[in-house]
Amino acid sequence: MEFESAKWIACLCSQVDNHINPDEITAMLDIDLCWSAVCARDATHDDRFVFAVKTTGIYCRPSCPARRPLKERVAFYTSPHEAEKAGYRACKRCLPNRESPDKQQDALIQAACTLLDQAEQPLPLEQLAARIGLSPSHLARLFKQRTGLTPRAWAEARRQQRLQANLPKSDTVLEAALASGYGSSRAVYEHPHALALAQRRRKGAGEHIRYGIAACTLGQVLVAKTSRGLCAVLFGDELPALEQELTERFAAAHCERDDAALADELVHVHAQLDEPTHLSALPLDMQGSAFQQRVWHALMKIPPGETRRYGELAVELDSHPRAIARACASNPLGLLVPCHRVVGATGALTGYRWGIARKEALLKREAEVIETSRERSRSI
Prior knowledge:
Blueprint: H1 6-17, H2 22-28, H3 31-39, E1 50-53, E2 58-60, E3 74-77, H4 80-85, E4 89-90, H5 101-118, H6 125-132, H7 136-147, H8 151-166, H9 173-179, H10 197-201, E5 208-216, E6 219-226, E7 229-236, H11 239-249, E8 254-257, H12 263-274, H13 290-299, E9 308-309, H14 310-316, H15 321-329, E10 342-343, H16 356-379
Parallel strand pairs: 2-4, 5-8, 9-10
Antiparallel strand pairs: 1-2, 1-3, 5-6, 6-7
Helix pairs in contact: 5-6, 5-7, 5-8, 14-15
C-alpha cells in the first residue's frame, strides 16, 4: 500500500531544504492521521514521518514498540533529518534513522525474486536462502508474506510466463518449453491452462471473447465474457481506453464487440449498481493465479455496506497486505468482485484501479441502500 507519491515527498523535501520552519513542516502533515498511525504502531507509515517526544528528546518511527507518550508531548517530522535538526536524537530501539525493517525485507525478497528469475534451473530453497543470507524457514515465511507465493511457486509462475511469451514465436511447444527453462515438453502439460498450449502458440486463436459497452452512473462500463462466463467488468471514461485495457489483458484472444449479445449482462451490472444488495448470479470466468483467485473469492464474501482492511484480509489468507493490494489491483471484474470494499489501515480510501472517485461512489451507494433498508425495517 502506498500513501504518498515519491514526487510529493521529493517536493516536500525540497521545500524543507529551503529553511521552512519546523512548525510549518509539522503543519504539512495530517496530525490526526499521524497520531492514529502512532497509536496503532502502523509500520506502513514508517517511511512517511517520524514522531519526537519533547520530554525525552528522542524521535521514533510510528511502529516503535516503546510506550506511547501523551499526544501533547509529541511533535511530527517528515524525516529523521528534520527531527535531528530540531535537536532530537534517534531511538535506539526502533532505529528510525536507518532503513525500515519493511524496506530491508522488501529488498531481500526482491533480490530473491531476481535470483529465481535469472536461474536457468529451479533453485532449491536452501540454496536460495544461503545466497540471500536468511534461514530457509525465515525466507519462506517472508517470501509468502510479500508475494503470496512460495519461492518454488514463484519460480514456476515466472517460468510459465516465459513459456507464454515464447509460445507464439516458437515453431513447436517443445522449442518454447526448452527456451523457457523446462527440460522437456512433458512438464508443461502437467499444469492446467485456460487455453491449450497449441492455442497459445497460435496466439490464442481458439479463445473468443465478446464484449459490450454502455453508459452507467460511473461513466462507461465494458462487460466481456468467454464461453465459461464473464471475464471482465471494466469502468472508464473513454471507449478506446476501455477496449485497450481489455485487449492488453487478453492479448492472446480474439475480442469482438457485440452489444446485443451482452445486453443481459449489461442489465445485470446496471441493476447491481442501483441495488448493490442484490448479488448477481452471473457465471464468472476468473482468470488469475491461484493466490489472486483466493483473494478475489475472499472479496466476494464481504457484505455490501461493509469494508475490510488490507491487513485483515492478509491475516485471513496468511499473506501480506501488499500482496493483497496487488491482487486487488489486478482484479478484472470490477463491482462483481468487490475490491472497492477494501480500505487502508486507518479506514481511508486508498488506490482503486478505476479511480478513488468511483470507489467512493460505490461505497456511498451501498451505505445509502443499507440505511434505507434499515429505516424500512424500523418502520414496520
